[in-house]
């Protein structure tokens, strides 16, 4: 890494790698993984700028993660801070300068910014060295802040970041900013589709689809590792699956208002028409020009199938909803339902029961969890239900993350 030619080759390869990731959340995770690799950092965080505030959006910490059971992730709370001189990240976002601090506990009193030691106290961690860089877009704006923490020597002790680290991370931040801006545009486009659905169906909010996507990715990761899926394949699938799961109900855009907005229970004829949102949604992604199109169609078509075969729409042509020749049109069951559809089926129901709707109040968490337990092996894949309860703390973090974000926007 200290050889200039090797560094340039590595950065070029990194640029290609980051631009192959399309989902914003998956990209932030990848950026932090690679930033920590390039700088030898133990931990790191990404802040995304939203107007005059910075949102603490993603974090990693090897020391804290090593204290967890294998395969588990940190549960952390997001928060925001003003873009001003009161914090290190806020100062960097506002000034556009980078900061290389040898020890955040030893900042001169003359500096306007301070390190918030409360975070270390709550997590039982000691932050020492910190390299904080603005993520500057091609137009000169700041889309966020990248922070790497505690450079390490060969024995794992925290040391200051070097001038070489500064140079590498300066170029890294430029590549990351471009990739983040592109992913934000992609996310915005998906959420516009969700907003179009929301004009027809008030239940399809950005918070709902982000929660369903977050739950789905968590379940998929643990299911895939149980089944021996390679890490490379998991990385690819997480990216496309997260975006696809956000559009699971996009077919509702073609369902009449009298059905979508009916406050009471649908009659049998109305329910039959509502079922059409599955194959209508799937047809929007045909012809399949990418893996994303295929996964998105699969999710839209199958997220109302049931493990016991009592779901819908069954084995139908996604272009017209007609039964496929030689197939039972009334039943998909068990592992005949694609795994992405089985996952979103569970994630969607959990979020629907946990949320207030026009026709019902929010259920208590205890009641929601009891429902899922009782539906194990009936409505839901029993293995996925087991995984769901294993990762319930992660599910709750995702739920809080997007619920609080929605409440702040209202």
In short:
This protein is α+β, with helices and mostly antiparallel strands and 410 residues long. The protein is built from 16 helices and seven strands.
Structural topology:
Elements: H1 4-18, H2 24-39, E1 41-50, E2 53-61, H3 62-65, E3 80-82, H4 88-95, E4 99-101, H5 118-123, E5 130-136, E6 142-152, E7 158-159, H6 163-200, H7 206-226, H8 231-246, H9 257-260, H10 268-275, H11 277-283, H12 291-302, H13 339-354, H14 365-374, H15 382-390, H16 392-409
Antiparallel strand pairs: 1-2, 1-6, 2-3, 4-5, 5-6, 6-7
Protein described:
With 410 residues, the protein is α+β, with helices and mostly antiparallel strands. It has 2 domains: 4-183, GAF domain (Beta-Lactamase, 2-Layer Sandwich); 201-409, Hypothetical protein af1432 (Orthogonal Bundle). The protein has helices at residues 4-18, 24-39, 62-65, 88-95, 118-123, 163-200, 206-226, 231-246, 257-260, 268-275, 277-283, 291-302, 339-354, 365-374, 382-390, 392-409, and strands at 41-50, 53-61, 80-82, 99-101, 130-136, 142-152, 158-159. Strands 1, 2, 3, 4, 5, 6 and 7 form a 7-stranded antiparallel β-sheet that branches. α2 packs antiparallel against α6 (163-200) and α7 (206-226) runs antiparallel to α8 (231-246). The mean pLDDT is 87.
Q: Regarding CATH, which class of the largest domain?
A: Mainly Alpha
Name the average pLDDT: 87
| Number of E-type strands | 7
Residues in helix, % = 40-55%
Ends: how far apart? 47 Å
Pattern of helices and strands: HHEEHEHEHEEEHHHHHHHHHHH
Structural class: alpha+beta
Report strand %: 5-15%
Q: How many domain modules?
A: 2
Question: What is the radius of gyration?
Answer: 23 Å
Runs with pLDDT <50, length 5+? none
- What characterizes the major β-sheet? 7 strands, antiparallel
- Apparent shape: elongated
Assign the CATH architecture of the largest domain: Orthogonal Bundle
Q: Within the CATH hierarchy, at the fold level, what is the topology of the largest domain?
A: Hypothetical protein af1432
- What would you give as the CATH superfamily of the largest domain? Hypothetical protein af1432
DSSP summary: helix tally? 16
